[in-house]
Amino acid sequence: MSKISLKKFTLAIATSLFLVSCSSPLTQTPLCELQEVTSTSKQSQKLNISVHVDGSGSMLGYVKPSNTAYIQALNLLGDTLELSEGLHKENILNYYRNGEKDPLITRSEYRKAQLPLFYDGTDQTFPAVSSPIHEAVKEPSEDDDLIVIVTDLEQDQGDVTKLTKNLQQYLNKDKQYSVGIWAVKSEFEGKVYLENAQSNLGFKEYNTNNQSVNEYRPFYILFVGRSEDIEYYFDKISSSNPQLSNSDQGHLIIFNPHHLVSQLTSIKNLPELPAGLDSPASLIDKTIQVYQDTNNPYQLLSILPENNDSKKLNLSLALSPLKYSLPLDINSLEVTNTVKIFDAFQEADDKFVEENQTPSLKEALEISNWNLNPSDNKLTFTTTIKPDKIESNLIYLYDLNIKASNVQIPPWWSEWSWQSLGEQNGSKTQNLERFLTQLKNSSLESMTETDKNVTIGKLCFAINKE
Questions:
Q1: Is 367 helix (H, G, I), strand (E, B) or coil?
Q2: Are 319 and 328 in contact (CB under 8 A)?
Q3: What percent of the chain is modeled with pLDDT above 70?
Q4: Are 164 and 142 in a shared domain?
Q5: What average pLDDT score do residues 222-248 get?
Q6: Is the domain of 90 the same as that of 235?
Q7: In this structure, is the dihedral angle defined by the CA atoms of residues 107, 109, 115 and 120, taken in order, positive or negative?
Q8: Residues 343 and 237 in one domain
Q9: 257: which of 94, 171, 210, 430 fits an S-S bond (Cβ 3.0–4.6 Å)?
Q10: Are 305 and 370 in the same domain?
């Protein structure tokens, strides 16, 4: 190469390096992505509603006193299903007296479920029956179904497994099926069927006259169908009679096997920061400048010089739990942490890539001290930042997904349930807690097959150590 050519080549390289060194840093506005969690299934034009009333003798005591909570609930249920528009263009409503070979009954016959003749076997229209309620839960059809079952949940020797097994086929369907429970305590005057030590079925008289609500006898209305349909009718029931649906006398629960929250939430603003931390309008290093997105921003944090001690931030997330769902168990919360660094050679607009070579980077952020306020569903926690785990003069993006694997069990499950012979009581239901726990576990098992379904919120930080 000639001397002139060599000089030109050297000058070109020098000029290029000068331009690179003098150019402005590349700007990035990373988005704290919050995935959609409520993927509503396709809704059919028609909803098949089937109402099954347990016609066995164990239900007789609910209608002997006048205007019991059971009678009020039957009236409210029938009126709600008949008169509400619902979410579909067409509702096909049928009534059944469970336990008969041909259980289909008319609307007027359903209304007679408020009378003793529906249960005592004295009317040939309503012969004496036993009621294996699990048989009312048929396989899901091609159309959308809503199965409603009115029962005291008294099964053969307290065996609730058959019913749970049939309900599981709905909890595991691709459609957005759920199981709802409307649990109510009612006045009662009649026989309560109990087992003895030899597994023989006997009975004793049980009368709630002049007793407190705590001594009333429970009954249950099960809803099996699409989550949206159950929620729609629960809203109608709750607004019509809060005493029977949202008090010590009545409860509404939906076991949703698809999600724990209706939408993910993130932090929109930071609280007052401790000494040594700053939240600037942007972060900048030699190659990049990071700004906040206006909708779902990364929270920008700058660790000021000479600040290697741990910094604590008390933060909160306003969760969006599904209606009628059980509260989250904070002891089941865990955090997955992804760290990203800038890569100028990435062809995509987003030039931050995951960094897995430096384990200490993930240790730089630690979440602890979870607390959930049930009145406003606000999740509070402490975020500890450890500057000594972070290299200086680089910008890191931290994506922290908060996940939950369990929910709380409300006290009334055990208070309304008896398990052993010594606990037999007319104000309780045999193996109720076991049955409800099986439903809870089945819905959670179905949900945890996909990680995103158990994610309840996300924390996004962009951190620079000066």
A1: strand
A2: yes
A3: 88
A4: yes
A5: 96
A6: yes
A7: negative
A8: no
A9: 171
A10: yes
Query: What is the tens place of the pLDDT at every residue in 422-464?
Result: 667 899 998 999 999 999 999 998 887 665 568 999 999 999 9
Q: For 66-100, how does the pLDDT look when each residue is reduced to its tens digit (9 = 90+)?
A: 999 999 999 999 999 999 999 999 999 999 998 87
Look up residue 104 and give its two tokens: 């289909």
Nearest residue to 229 (alpha-carbon basis) of 173, 179, 184: 179
Q: Are residues 117 and 140 in the same domain?
A: yes
Query: What's the token pair of residue 164?
Result: 């749970």
Closest CA to 453 of 419, 389, 405: 405
Question: What total number of domains does the chain contain?
Answer: 2
pLDDT at 340 over 60: yes
Do 61 and 84 belong together in one domain?
yes
H-type helices in 338-403, by residue range? 359-362
Q: What is the DSSP string of 402-434?
A: EE---BPPPTHHHHTEE-SGGG--TTSEETHHH
Rounded to two decimals, the pTM is: 0.88
CATH number for the domain that contains residue 332: 2.60.40
DSSP-derived pairing of the beta strands 201-207 and 417-418: unpaired
Give the residue ranges of DSSP H helices in 200-263.
227-240
- Residue-range definition of the domain harbouring residue 172: 46-255+434-447
**Same domain (yes/no): 195, 247:** yes
What is the distance between the alpha carbons of residues 74 and 86, in angstroms, rounded to a whole number?
19
